[in-house]
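Open question from group meeting: does this chain pack into something compact, or does most of it stay loose? Before anyone orders reagents, we agreed to write out a predicted structure and look at it together. Recording both the input and the output here so the notebook holds the full record.
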Amino acid sequence: MIAKKYRKSKVFFVCLLMLFIACSREKTTQTNSNQTVLLVSIDGFRWDYFEKCPTPNFDKLARKGVKAERLIPVFPTLTFPNHYSIITGLYPENHGIVSNYMYDPVKQDSFSIKRTEMMTKSHWWDGEPLWITAGKHGLRSASFFWVGSETAISGVRPTIYKDYDSKIPGRTRIDTVLSWLDYPTSQRPQFITLYFSFIDHIGHTYGPESPEIVHAVSRMDSLIGYLVDGLGRIDDNVNTIILSDHGMAETRSDRIIEVDDYIDLSDVVYADWYTTSIVLPKAGKTDKLYNQLHNAHPHLKVFKKEHLPGRFHFKKNNRIHPLVLIADTGWEVMTRKEAERRRQYKKIGGAHGYDNSDERMHGIFIAFGPAFRQGSRVSPFLNIHIYELVCKILGIVPAPNDGSLDSVKVVLKKFNR
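Structure tokens returned:
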């Protein structure tokens, strides 16, 4: 009888010990609450825009923290693929957002960045965004815009999020983020995103070499100053990363490739004609279209997707169709009808989406706060590494991804595996 009671007591003790260990481990994954990361994206801010006009606030932050010579985007150098690569650490072929406009031949469904009801379908979005990773470790998140934040990805959105509205003024966005940082500790988000689009809009409309872009850069510098002043009043220990998704190249109305000069458009099921065009031919028409487009124009390259350069990491997804057209930087592909319309209203503009090795497509990276080195300048790196970087700062375990902390740990003040 005594032995039986002893065995029961022993079993109870072992169970209690296991529960204690489990709780301790659970607590360990949630204890780095003293770290906060603010991730700021300035869409379309080319790395050399700092040279166009005085940027005292950006310059101050570069001295205060760490600045990369350039931030290298993933291919294609478009807004949605790159923002989602930054937030998941995955190449587009692995996270599924391969372009701003897509067609999925398996689901027979279309995606457009101009149609909210299309974007918010969860089947488009693979991978694990940072707000989901943070939530798995007990951290709250907030998003004043980011690609994917309005969609319930794997059933999860940021703890706080805003439906996208480009009309909301920059200072209103900043004031809202500052108010989140001023929440009581139990409600305060520890991972926050903030997004600005007007630099990209001005670049597209007037071109990257225009007086308008100079004014826009100066305006952005003032907003950054406003943000930093606010952080100083509320919490000067926020780890802040300021980056851009891609750069911008000048386009002209005499640098347009009219695709229907070379092919019959009725042979195409789907294509988003632009700087990089992903083309779905009708059944049996792939070789015909490839042969017609190969060497058709001196400023256009056409690839069967299996022959794309490996450095693009752009083959393994059914949304990447059999043919991929890549225009030389500064050139655009469009139909004759669209080209005629373009020439009527715009002679000079800007575009991106080109080969990501072209420096005109490269963006910015500046980071400051307790986790980052001070007054340091580092070599260019790919934006897929930022996911691992943020996870390291927050003390959370990253989901499987294509990035490497080793590729970006040089920005950190101290690094322990």
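Observations to bring back to the group:
The chain has two domains: 37-249+356-411, 254-345.
The mean pLDDT is 93.
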